[in-house]
TrEMBL record:
Protein family: Belongs to the NAD(P)-dependent epimerase/dehydratase family.
Lineage: Eukaryota, Viridiplantae, Streptophyta, Embryophyta, Tracheophyta
GO biological process terms on file: glycolipid biosynthetic process; sulfolipid biosynthetic process
Protein's name in the database: UDP-sulfoquinovose synthase
GO molecular function list: UDPsulfoquinovose synthase activity
Short name of one Pfam family: Epimerase
NAD-dependent epimerase/dehydratase domain segment(s): 91-379
InterPro entries: Epimerase_deHydtase (IPR001509), NAD(P)-bd_dom_sf (IPR036291)
């Protein structure tokens, strides 16, 4: 049986890809000098095998009672009970150790929500397996949470485990009793899902089964719980018509209906999100689940009010060719004097948003829940840019800081349209009160300065893209460190 992992746990994985939690203050993840990623690789299997073998997991909820909590002035996480009393809304953040999830967990905690993080820490293991690292040094999840408590007096509960294991998730649900679940806990890199067959299968299994388990957990244990699911703008692809928010009204042979907007995803990762959306929509209809699918664009930035409070709260920033996303990569490339890597013609246009808006959008979705049975879709981005436009903006900002920046076109490792129409609607979150942080010169300056601050940590070998959409095969991809 899978269990909830306490801060005093001891976890051992006896294989070449080792993950040890030796003590509460020390998390060591030895990187093998070389390994065959395919044959030995199955993060899912390894973690579940581990949970069956080990008797060291214990259940430990670390919440303190409300009276012990230091409340902040900006509390917005409370709700009225039927007898008029005020209680704090409980939000479970699945994937709360990741890039979007960590920033969101702290933001919600700061706003007065009672927060629990659920995460199996697999993202940290991917880095070790591929020999990658965040630009910023990130503390262990335990130290992060302890630091947050010492700075604010606020507790965040931690459940370490895999949501693909229903027993684990069920225990976490029964123990925490969430009013809302924010689900970030997926394998989220398109290139990772295109490395080889085992990564493709892992991605779809992890994402689709994990989400199905969340839906079953809500049905079984918390019927009223609002699911806020992170989807992606990439579910829509790049159609030659305007992209609507989730649904489109079509008249065909004289009859009219409002239907889910057509999906044309372009990686096994993006396809997993499409399947998630269908499963969620179906369970809203069949079981009355209330859900919001946040079709998020590409996120950039690293600082939020909360993560800026202490170096142990600093968020991860990926710049490598597998997990790094466009604008974050370009800023790091500019900082180290690497040419900006525009794939192909650079006309690829996507929706983008500042990570400060990710946390704001999630808060807005939680504060304005979907109705029972409603499958609500919001397009979560604030501006759209082509890759060439991003490169031009970073070049200009870099020159202002005295950096010599140039962009090059590299052969596109992906299969995607490089010149296309793109006009995606994104009004629903604005209508609910989103106040966007738009990409500005000052923001680019600060992002670039941030990248410069950590540039000694950059491994320039990780910058060029290494995963080809066309060359993916069943054969396990071998990587030597
Ligand atoms: P991330 O990889 O940094 O974080 C994901 C977290 O989920 C990790 O901490 C990982 O350990 C955890 N996780 C994965 N599978 C799990 C499982 N089975 N059980 C428990 N925990 C699990 O990713 P991110 O950039 O924070 O993205 C979060 C979500 O937002 C993803 O669903 C992604 O698809 C979506 N999204 C991200 C972006 C972006 O630009 N980063 C843009 C659009 C949508
Ligand atoms: N690109 C370049 N050069 C680079 C990196 C990317 O030209 O160095 C191009 C890509 O080819 C693509 C575009 O920039 O056309 C965006 O790529 P990306 O790597 O920034 O983003 P993507 O792979 O789409 O994935 C990211 C997140 C994913 C999320 C998605 C939102 O990793 O979790 O779902 O953004 S969206 O793009 O809207 O689907």
């Amino acid at each position: 049986m899978a269990h909830l992992l306490s801060t005093t746990c001891s976890l051992d994985v006896s294989s070449s890809n080792k993950l040890h939690f030796k003590s509460i203050n020390q998390c060591s993840t030895p990187i093998p000098t070389s390994f065959n990623m395919g044959i030995s690789f199955s993060p899912l299997k390894k973690l579940s095998l581990q949970s069956k073998r080990s008797a060291k997991y214990v259940v430990r909820a670390s919440a303190v009672s409300m009276s012990q909590e230091a409340r902040t002035q900006n509390d917005s996480g409370s709700q009225q009970t039927t007898d008029g009393a005020s209680t704090r809304k409980k939000v479970m953040v699945i994937g709360g150790d990741g890039y979007c999830g960590w920033a969101t967990a702290l933001h919600l905690s700061n706003k007065g929500y009672e927060v629990a993080i659920v995460d199996n820490l697999i993202r940290r293991l991917f880095d070790d397996q591929l020999g990658l690292d965040s630009l910023t040094p990130i503390s262990s999840i335990h130290n992060r949470i302890r630091r947050w408590k010492s700075l604010t007096g606020k507790d965040i509960q931690l459940f370490v485990g895999d949501i693909c294991e229903f027993e684990f998730l069920a225990e976490a649900f029964k123990s925490f009793e969430p009013d809302a679940v924010v689900h970030f806990g997926e394998q989220r890199s398109a290139p990772y899902s295109m490395i080889d067959r085992s990564r493709a299968i892992y991605t779809q299994h992890n994402n689709v089964i994990g989400t199905l388990n969340v839906l079953f957990a809500i049905k079984e244990f918390r019927e009223e719980c609002h699911l806020v699911k992170l989807g992606t703008m990439g579910e829509y692809g790049t159609p030659n018509i305007d992209i609507e928010e989730g649904y489109i009204t079509i008249t065909h042979n004289g009859r009219t209906d409002t239907l889910p907007y057509p999906k044309q995803a372009s990686s096994f990762y993006h396809l997993s999100k499409v399947h998630d959306s269908h499963n969620i929509a179906f369970t809203c209809k069949a079981w009355g689940i209330r859900a919001t699918d946040l079709n998020q664009g590409v996120v950039y930035g690293v600082r939020t009010d909360e993560t800026a409070m202490h170096e142990e709260l600093v968020n991860r920033l990926d710049y490598d060719g597998v997990f790094g996303t466009a604008l974050n990569r370009f800023c790091v490339q500019a900082a180290v004097g690497h040419p900006l890597t525009v794939y192909g013609k650079g006309g690829q246009t996507r929706g983008y948003l500042d990570i400060r808006d990710t946390v704001q959008c999630v808060e807005i979705a939680i504060a304005n829940p979907a109705k029972p049975g409603e499958f609500r879709v919001f397009n979560q981005f604030t501006e759209q840019f082509s890759v060439n436009e991003l490169a031009a903006l970073v070049t200009k900002a870099g020159e202002k800081l005295g950096l010599e920046v140039k962009a090059i076109s590299v052969p596109n490792p992906r299969v995607e349209a490089e010149e296309h129409y793109y006009n995606a609607k994104h009004t629903k979150l604005i209508e609910l009160g989103l106040q966007p942080h738009l990409l500005s010169d000052s923001l680019l300056d600060s992002l670039l300065n941030f990248a410069v601050q950590y540039k000694d940590r950059v491994d320039t070998k990780q910058i060029m893209p290494s995963v080809s959409w066309k060359k993916i095969g069943a054969k396990p991809k071998t990587v030597a460190a």
